[in-house]
Sequence to fold (249 residues):
Amino acid sequence: MKQLSRSFGGLRAVDDVSFNVEKNSITAVIGPNGAGKTTLFNLISGALAPDSGEAYIDGRPIHRLPPYRIARHGISRTFQNIKLFPHMTVLENVMIGRHIRSRSGFLSAMLRLPGSRAEEQQIQERSMEILALMGIEGIAGQEAGSLPFGKQRIVEFARALATEPSLLLLDEPAAGLNMYETAQVSELITKIRGRGVTVLVIEHDMSLVMNISDMIVVLSSGKKIAEGLPSDIQKNREVIRVYLGEDNA
Ligand SMILES: Nc1ncnc2c1ncn2[C@@H]1O[C@H](COP(=O)(O)OP(=O)(O)O)[C@@H](O)[C@H]1O
Ligand SMILES: [Mg+2]
Fold:
């Protein structure tokens, strides 16, 4: 990420932000509400175009590409608000992620057009493997919308993984989860990294962030105010000030 900026009207939501994400690391993006974290993800995934600045994956520029082409560069994401297809089964939701990788593509997946049978079979098998990896193969046939929130989150992970990303963007994966589910999610994130995926995660749960991150980037009012190891960030005066300021507001 090089000097990425994006404004909404007069508001500089992401203001000249640069940082590197080490391959196969877990890097956390933290900061108070409205700091520009989600906007940053929107810029990386192509949901929003930057006003200026550049983004690269494996040295290749992605900042002028539409989202579907960025996805083909191996970037996948989950959303702050879960976006599953509620009336499809868990397996179908994950298969849609998988279809993005396949020849017949996302549109035919949405329209449920049949690809070749062999291809369909392969996608189904691979999707089941991903469900098993996430420990939710037992609910493959259930309607996604009927599941408890914590389970839906894990289905979202599985769908993002189905595209076989090299970079996974997770926007507040522990939001709304209880302590047990949060622990489960942090274990899954570590497991995902263990499969060679680079993870960039926005999260408010500080114990999760401190436990799993290799590096932390801190945003406040659109600007990067700190970057470093968890142990350094914990002691950083500016970071402490920003967080205490938020608590006192
Ligand atoms: N699409 C948009 N249109 C206008 N303002 C936006 C839009 N998206 C975000 N913002 C504003 O940009 C700022 C940063 O938002 P966001 O990136 O969602 O912050 P965070 O994820 O850190 O809480 C906020 O003030 C927000 O209101
Ligand atoms: Mg956000």
About this structure: The longest strand covers residues 2-8. DSSP finds ten helices and eleven strands in the chain. The mean pLDDT is 89.
